[in-house]
Amino acid sequence: MDFSSLLLVNAAVIAGCMFALWLISLWRKDASIVDLFWGLGFVVVAWVSTLCAASPGPLAWLTTLLVTIWGCRLAGYLAWRNLGHGEDKRYAEMRNKPDRNFALFSLVVVFGLQGTIMWNVSLPLQILPTLEGSFSAISALGLACWGIGLAFESLADYQLARFKANASDQHQVLDQGLWRYTRHPNYFGDFLVWWGFFLLVLSADSTAWWTAIGPALMTFCLLYFSGVAHLEKRIQTRRPEYADYIRRTSPFFPWPPASHSESRT
């Protein structure tokens, strides 16, 4: 199957999965389940692309394995963190807006939009099985980015979970471990993972440079759409101490924190 056919097949698969999830969310009255599918959706796309391609090479199979590890870890963590705690506040606020048909709204804005983003972000995963590249120095760089990224976000999630379990005051701010050097180490890890996937594609065929659309869109989402900007707006209203944390800590890329005197200048 060629790349254009794979694009259509994956679009149909993602649309079908999102529609099924939407129906389940109506039954459960909980749109939060869409978040659990975020990582798993890319696993589905990677496997569909690899299994449907005419002759996927070792690099394609390796990337599919890497996507599976990343996606299952993320889904497992979110399930452990969120299941049993009711609908996420973001979706609850959307649901409670007056004069809104939330069922239709969630189909388009929550499930439909996330499916569209997933299809675009996964462009590197969709094209790789159709390429005939072999391992190279760029492949090694891509693997390094993926490995560091996965370790970064896994450790960050662990540190955050441990902090929340031991925090005596809900207004406390985590500023230790990886969180000392960046306010969002889990998002930075995700950033590295996706640019690692892109480098694997680039190592297979340099003419596939345009699939940078995928990790670029993921980076935009992490920084401005559903990640850093959105989350920090909510945190600052609940934790006054977070303002000082912002002044002394890098927002995204890891960097040594500013001293208290520097943060006041």
Automatic annotation (TrEMBL):
One of its GO terms (cellular component) is membrane. Signal peptide: none annotated. It comes from the Bacteria. The chain crosses the membrane at residues 6-24, 36-54, 60-80, 101-121, 133-152, 187-204, 210-231. InterPro entries: UstE-like (IPR010721). Pfam families: DUF1295. Keywords: Membrane, Transmembrane, Transmembrane helix. This is Uncharacterized protein. It comes from Blastopirellula marina. The lineage of its organism: Bacteria, Pseudomonadati, Planctomycetota, Planctomycetia, Pirellulales.
